[in-house]
Description:
Blueprint: E1 3-6, H1 8-17, E2 25-32, E3 36-40, H2 59-70, E4 78-84, H3 90-96, E5 107-116, E6 121-129, H4 137-154
Antiparallel strand pairs: 1-6, 2-3, 2-4, 4-5, 5-6
Amino acid sequence: xxxxxxxxxxxxxxxxxxxxxxxxxxxxxxxxxxxxxxxxxxxxxxxxxxxxxxxxxxxxxxxxxxxxxxxxxxxxxxxxxxxxxxxxxxxxxxxxxxxxxxxxxxxxxxxxxxxxxxxxxxxxxxxxxxxxxxxxxxxxxxxxxxxxxxxxxxx
Length: 155
């Protein structure tokens, strides 16, 4: 787990206005303005004529809705937005980072937890595995990947 304190203006632009995170899976959000809005990213497959293979919506599917809640004359009191690298890209991530000791099906999620407390915006990284391992290589590679991604946002 790594905690990054971010420039709210730059990061919010990438999070809500640009496609930077659009291919990430949307896990959940909680946004507090005049009400508390809670959104679960889990897809209800019964809703679709042809059910998607994935379990979660992409960020691009809910980004504008979240933006409509957040935008206004006043900043939100707080929010959290949880994203994960999309499950179908786990194999590519492992291959690119030469993590041969892991299999995609062992990974539950590679997470980005954006948290705003009314003054400070942070991104907290995390991973979740279906199996127990003492090896922290995947965690370190995920943290480095996120650090690079966030650094590119402020350039």
